């Protein structure tokens, strides 16, 4: 990184010069991960062979299994990780940033080395692992998109959990009544919008502390859906809590692509909608007038007001839009994952989605990738249980939270949210 420094000459002229500063944060992170993996492979060695199954039962193209020597493969990858870390340190020493490709390559090789170690003497179903990761991350992606839009508009959307819950409840109820999952999906969007509407009203109009309103709304919706579940759905379970779910839609030809085909092109309607939502929100946020105004009211509302942008109405409607998107994530619980509503079935995933927003630096694509990381690690925990690895499966559930804490603390780089997020705007 670099900074500007000013110096004054004898004749009084001010000269600006660039002062370069070395930053070793990324090399330190990569080095710590390399050392931890090396220590794991050294002190908890696993012998034998690791088998990776690449084919999928739904794919027309069958690929042979890949069998690797566990000890040899893991140590070769550790050496490769050490070389990548050394290259990152060399770049930092020369005042250069670590490129994104190096970080992605390091993470991919690190995960692969861990899978080789964990799969010693067992079978790692690659397609099933990736399909499960995508499935578990779908509600998180929608919640993260809602969080990004809300905070970019200047309102901290802590009520994602409540939007999930009411969306899941509305989807199950309406889909059961109408026997149409699309009606349930629309109901979920309305449910998420209602929660966001209340959040926006108190935070924007009545200037109540946004975090407090969000927490209260989560508790309120949890109690409300729990009451309605016991009073309405349980006595009429067959009529009101048997929603028609979305079936998988396999895209011809593309769905038969090995490995990626089942992951990307043999999914339900909501998953395809997720792909579209990420692309549209990312494009709209940076390439349209809507995105420009949204970012303006979240970064500098006074400046936005001076050029004619109505700050509070813009915030209000965008927070409502964020709630509708998060409501789609709630619909996934009852229209795809579990075809029935249950009390507190979201299990705090709304707060994980909020963590993905921070970890993704308030960017739609990065936040979605962070949500995919949570989904992958959660599914990996299930695989570790099957493979009976020496590492407790609960440890893997801790990993995304530890990474997020390190990122928020600035260990992996300084993270700054929208300047006016959480700050009500009072027109002077």
UniProtKB/TrEMBL annotation:
One Pfam entry name: BPD_transp_2
InterPro entries noted in UniProt: ABC_transp_permease (IPR001851)
Source taxon at top rank: Bacteria
Transmembrane segments: 26-44, 72-93, 100-120, 126-148, 155-177, 183-204, 211-232, 269-286, 316-333, 345-362, 369-389, 395-413
Annotated compartments: Cell membrane
Keywords: Cell membrane, Membrane, Transmembrane, Transmembrane helix
Recorded topology in the membrane: Multi-pass membrane protein
Residue stretches in coiled coil: none
Alphabetized PANTHER family for the sequence: GUANOSINE ABC TRANSPORTER PERMEASE PROTEIN NUPQ (PTHR43370:SF1), SUGAR ABC TRANSPORTER INTEGRAL MEMBRANE PROTEIN-RELATED (PTHR43370)
Protein name: ABC transporter permease
């Amino acid at each position: 990184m670099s900074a500007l420094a000013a110096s004054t000459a004898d004749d009084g002229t001010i000269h600006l010069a660039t002062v370069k500063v070395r930053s070793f944060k990324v090399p330190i992170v990569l080095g710590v991960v390399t050392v931890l993996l090396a220590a794991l492979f050294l002190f908890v060695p696993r012998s034998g062979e690791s088998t990776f199954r690449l084919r999928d039962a739904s794919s027309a193209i069958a690929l042979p299994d890949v069998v690797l020597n566990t000890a040899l493969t893991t140590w070769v990858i550790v050496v490769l990780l050490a070389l990548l870390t050394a290259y990152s340190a060399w770049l930092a020493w020369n005042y250069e940033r670590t490129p994104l490709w190096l970080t992605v390559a390091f993470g991919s090789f690190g995960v692969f080395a861990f899978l080789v170690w964990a799969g010693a003497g067992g079978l790692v179903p690659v397609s099933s692992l990736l399909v499960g990761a995508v499935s578990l991350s779908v509600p998180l992606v929608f919640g993260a998109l809602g969080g990004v839009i809300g905070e970019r508009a200047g309102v901290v959307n802590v009520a994602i959990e409540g939007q999930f819950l009411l969306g899941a409840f509305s989807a199950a109820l309406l889909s059961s009544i109408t026997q149409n999952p699309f009606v349930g999906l629309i109901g979920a969007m309305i449910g998420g919008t209602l929660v966001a509407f209340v959040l926006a009203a108190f935070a924007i109009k009545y200037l109540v502390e946004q975090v407090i309103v969000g927490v209260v709304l989560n508790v309120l919706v949890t109690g409300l859906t729990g009451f309605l579940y016991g009073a309405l759905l349980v006595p009429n379970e067959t009529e009101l809590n048997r929603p028609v779910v979305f079936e998988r839609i396999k895209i011809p030809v593309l769905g038969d692509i090995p490995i990626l085909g089942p992951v990307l092109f043999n999914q339900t309607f909501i998953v395809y909608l997720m792909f579209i939502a990420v692309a549209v929100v990312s494009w709209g946020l940076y390439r349209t007038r809507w995105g420009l105004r949204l970012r303006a009211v979240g970064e500098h509302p006074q400046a936005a007001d001076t050029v004619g942008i109505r700050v509070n109405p813009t915030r209000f409607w965008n927070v409502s839009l964020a709630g509708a998107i998060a409501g789609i994530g709630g619909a996934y619980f009852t229209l795809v994952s579990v075809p029935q509503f249950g009390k507190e079935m979201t299990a705090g995933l709304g707060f994980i989605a909020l963590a993905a927003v921070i970890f993704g630096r308030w960017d739609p694509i990065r936040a979605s990738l962070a949500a995919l990381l949570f989904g992958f690690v959660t599914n990996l925990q299930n695989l570790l249980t099957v493979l009976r690895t020496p590492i407790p499966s609960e440890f893997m559930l801790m990993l995304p939270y530890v990474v997020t804490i390190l990122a928020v603390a600035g260990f992996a780089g300084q993270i700054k949210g929208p300047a006016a997020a959480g700050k009500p705007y009072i027109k002077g």
